[in-house]
Write a structure and sequence with these properties.
The protein has about 200 residues and is an alpha+beta fold. It has five helices and six strands. Strands 1, 2, 3, 4, 5 and 6 form a six-stranded antiparallel sheet that branches. Helix 2 crosses helix 5. The radius of gyration is 18 Å and the shape is globular. It comes from Amycolatopsis cynarae.
Length: about 200
């Protein structure tokens, strides 16, 4: 049986959850290169037609009310994300980097709550949800890395749980699409950065 020290950062941040989703990708790059590609990902570079449409619809209530904030120039995980409610939860060098947020994710216009990192795991004020996510890597054979992306969400009271689970049934397919698109972007970045031996010369 594992000990508390064996737990992943995401498990320490959100030990139990109302919803969890995870995706994996085999990256043909070494583990260090893959991990650096994950921690230095600019989330704004993750783009598909479905994501562009979904984010536009998601932001529509804020745009109509005039409350939409301008898009930041970049969102890099290793630099602390820089979005209201989101924070870097921790990093194990070369293994895992975790981040999270407190908010009311089920509302048409999401309400965010800034919580200090040291209070995140124990935060339990009724009416909120906590989301924790991570990128983790492990060696996969001699020449590849298994890259994983996991998200966990837990709510702080029964009423919020009901609201969140109704919302989750609707958005789960989109969430899976986001995870897969994100992994694909990291994979392409890592494989482009990987040092490959020169091709053998023809005879």
């Amino acid at each position: 049986m594992g000990t508390a020290d064996d737990r992943m950062l995401i498990e320490s941040a959100v030990p139990t959850f109302d919803a969890m989703i995870a995706e994996h990708a085999v990256v043909y790059a070494d583990r260090a290169t893959t991990f650096e590609a994950a921690r230095n990902l600019d989330f704004l570079t993750v783009r598909t037609p479905l994501l562009t449409a979904a984010f536009w619809v998601r932001d529509l209530p804020s745009r109509l009310s005039g409350g939409a904030a301008p898009d930041p120039p970049e969102l890099v995980l290793s630099e602390g994300i820089g979005l209201r409610g989101w924070l870097l939860l921790g990093e194990r060098e070369g293994q895992e980097i975790a981040f999270g947020a407190v908010g009311k994710f089920w509302r048409p216009a999401i309400v965010w709550r800034d919580v200090p990192r040291e209070e995140f795991a124990g935060f339990s004020e009724p009416g909120w949800g906590k989301m924790a996510a991570n990128f983790s890597v492990q060696s996969y054979g001699n020449d590849a890395t298994l890259l994983s992306y996991q998200c966990r969400t837990v709510t702080t009271d029964l009423a919020s749980r009901r609201r969140f689970l109704r919302y989750w049934r609707l958005v789960r397919p989109l969430a899976r699409h986001v995870l897969r698109a994100t992994l694909r972007t990291i994979q392409l970045n890592a494989e482009a950065a990987a040092v490959r031996p020169p091709e053998p010369e023809g005879e």
